[in-house]
């Protein structure tokens, strides 16, 4: 097939593929009708055969171009083209429509292939996709809040009633100030050696009770007159809030 004819068929294939876009009238049928020049020496059977072969050659090339240009792949549908949606057919009519020719140029006009396209109803357009960017037009973003570091906290100097409550907790809850390492060591010692569970429990309770009594006595001595006692007169002016590392309540003394 000459290059000029291949280019023309390529342009036709591109147009057929574009007709299968949403909203367009798709091509659902392609018919190639071959024609031949009059050949009195070989007869009408030869004219019919050559016209059919000419139509099939053009149809094969056009079908291949349409499939190549519309090829797509998806994980769900796999490889697909628009060729299954089109009915391709080829036929030859011989020299029925041939005109008298006295030279080669006039004979070439009889040696042609007629292509007929059948159009179908338009495909519906997909529903419009909501553009979320339009919803935020005209909205001025405000300042972005910056989180406060979790290891700092603004604390104020305790008031009188707060001091009283802190000292009350210190005096009445000495268990909070027992060294946790001592508690863990007592539990480990009780569980390391095979012994009766009841005896191990009684031993741990006895040791912790002695530690609590001892710690309570020491705590009462240390908190008899702690700094910042609410019974002492306050300064005329309170000190400004200080920024310091957050400490657990049991470390306040």
Report on this structure.
By secondary structure, the chain is an alpha+beta fold. It has 2 domains: 3-119, OmpA-like domain (60s Ribosomal Protein L30, Chain: A, 2-Layer Sandwich); 152-231 and 242-251, no CATH class. It contains 6 helices and 7 strands; from the N terminus they run αβαβββαββαααβ. The strands form 3 sheets. The protein has a 3-stranded mixed beta sheet with strand order 4-1-5. A two-stranded antiparallel sheet has the order 2-3. It has a two-stranded antiparallel ribbon with strand order 6-7. A hairpin with a 3-residue loop joins strand 2 and strand 3 (78-80). Helix 1 crosses helix 2 and helix 5 (180-192) runs antiparallel to helix 6. It is rod-shaped, with a radius of gyration of 49 Å. The N and C termini lie far apart (102 Å).
Feature tags:
253 residues; alpha+beta; 60s Ribosomal Protein L30, Chain: A; 2 domains; two-stranded antiparallel ribbon; 6 helices; disordered C terminus
Task: Summarize the model shown.
By secondary structure, the protein is of the alpha+beta class. The chain has helices at 3-18, 44-69, 104-110, 160-172, 180-192, 197-222; strands at 27-34, 72-74, 78-80, 87-92, 113-119, 152-155, 242-245. It has 2 domains: 3-119, 60s Ribosomal Protein L30, Chain: A (2-Layer Sandwich), CATH 3.30.1330; 152-231 and 242-251, no CATH class.
């Amino acid at each position: 097939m000459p290059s000029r004819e291949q280019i023309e068929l390529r342009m036709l294939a591109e147009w057929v593929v574009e007709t299968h876009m949403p909203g367009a009238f798709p091509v659902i049928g392609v018919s190639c009708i071959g024609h031949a020049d009059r050949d009195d020496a070989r007869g009408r059977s030869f004219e019919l055969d050559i016209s059919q072969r000419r139509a099939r050659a053009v149809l094969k090339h056009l079908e291949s171009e349409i499939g190549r240009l519309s090829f797509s792949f998806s994980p769900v549908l796999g490889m697909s083209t628009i060729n299954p949606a089109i009915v391709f057919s080829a036929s030859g009519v011989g020299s029925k429509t041939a005109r008298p020719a006295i030279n080669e140029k006039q004979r070439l006009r009889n040696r042609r292939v007629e292509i007929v396209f059948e159009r179908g109803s338009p495909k519906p357009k997909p529903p419009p996709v909501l553009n979320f960017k339009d919803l935020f037009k005209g909205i001025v973003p405000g300042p972005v809040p910056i989180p406060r570091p979790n290891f700092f906290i603004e604390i104020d100097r305790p008031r009188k009633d707060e001091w009283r409550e802190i000292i009350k907790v210190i005096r009445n809850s000495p268990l909070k100030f027992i060294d946790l390492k001592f508690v863990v060591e007592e539990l480990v010692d009780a569980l390391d050696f095979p012994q009766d569970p009841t005896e191990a429990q009684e031993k741990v309770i006895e040791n912790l009770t002695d530690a609590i009594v001892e710690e309570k006595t020491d705590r009462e001595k240390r908190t008899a007159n702690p700094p910042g006692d609410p019974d002492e007169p306050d300064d005329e002016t309170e000190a400004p809030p200080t920024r310091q590392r957050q400490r657990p309540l049991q470390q306040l003394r």
